């Protein structure tokens, strides 16, 4: 089951179902049926506006985001689909922190639900730094069905890797 590196934390029966989809060459069809569209958030400026709108809608009192970009250097193998950072700098004797969100650039051509899931995940870190129950409740609040979409995103990454191997 080495092809399921994105699903290692899931129960064996679920992984077996995924292996059955892969063996029957049905994983791509499943994803295409469930997520037929791609989003139109293509530039860093559009991504910033997209994040700002979600933040305004759900996290009005959270810290301001200073920068949002697509990042071609994020390593999906290390499970970094997105990244939130807080860069501290001394300016005029004061310590200032800049909040940044980076989204792996492979998601420029992904389903809108996947982009939203990644942005929601990174925005939730503005309130909750750890992956705890409060963190996941906040993710679910911002995107109902968050857990299923996260699972499907992992299926998407698995399918993408399988397609690279056959190409």
Write a compact overview of the structure shown.
The chain contains six helices and three strands; from the N terminus they run H-H-H-E-E-E-H-H-H.
Question: Which strand order do you get reading across the main beta sheet?
Answer: 1-3-2
Cα shape:
elongated
Instruction: Name the average pLDDT.
Output: 87
Described by strand count, sense and barrel closure, the largest sheet is:
3 strands, mixed
Features:
alpha+beta, 3 strands, 167 residues, 6 helices, Zincin-like, 3-stranded mixed β-sheet
Q: Could you please describe the fold and organization of this structure?
A:
This protein has 167 residues and is an alpha+beta fold. It has one domain: 2-Layer Sandwich (Zincin-like), CATH 3.30.2010.10. Helices cover 47% and strands 16% of the residues. It is built from six helices and three strands; from the N terminus they run αααβββααα. It has helices at 12-23, 27-34, 44-58, 112-124, 133-142, 146-166; strands spanning 67-71, 82-91, 94-104. Strands 1-3-2 form a three-stranded mixed beta sheet. A hairpin with a 2-residue loop joins β2 and β3 (94-104). α4 crosses α5 and α4 crosses α6 (146-166). It starts with 11 loop residues before the first helix and ends with a helix.
